[in-house]
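Lecture notes, continued. The same structure-token format from the folding unit now serves as the input rather than the output. Read the line below as a description of shape only.
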């Protein structure tokens, strides 16, 4: 059986909807237009530093070339010494000869490492002179 609903409750005070702010606020940027646009000032062309001029390149190229040649010579000499020391270590008859040859090989390799790091420092200095670092 259905019961009649009371209409008296609906006839009372009118219901008001509550307004709540939205959970997500959209970003609304303000657009500002420039009244006039000015061009950036142009710099005058400047001459190169003395190290960047063609007449200064000759000595710098010669220095770099001599560094690389000396590194190549050191690599060849010390590489040969290390190879010879390794060969002696493999053919050694006693433990003392093997240890002596191995130490000689390590010394040759350490000298090559020193030559490499020295060349790297000097080449870095030349690059800084040229403004490459």
């Amino acid at each position: 059986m259905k019961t009649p609903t009371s209409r008296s409750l609906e006839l009372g005070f009118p219901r008001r909807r509550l307004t709540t702010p939205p959970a997500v606020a959209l970003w609304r940027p303000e657009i500002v237009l420039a009244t006039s646009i000015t061009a950036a000032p142009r710099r005058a062309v400047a001459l190169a530093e003395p190290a960047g001029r063609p007449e200064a390149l000759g000595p710098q190229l010669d220095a770099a070339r001599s560094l690389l040649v000396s590194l190549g010579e050191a690599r060849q000499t010390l590489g040969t010494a290390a190879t010879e020391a390794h060969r002696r270590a493999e053919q050694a008859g006693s433990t003392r000869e093997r240890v002596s040859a191995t130490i000689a090989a390590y010394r040759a390799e350490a000298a090559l490492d020193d030559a490499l790091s020295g060349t790297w420092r000097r080449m870095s200095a030349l690059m800084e002179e040229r403004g490459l670092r």
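Point for the exam: The mean pLDDT is 79.
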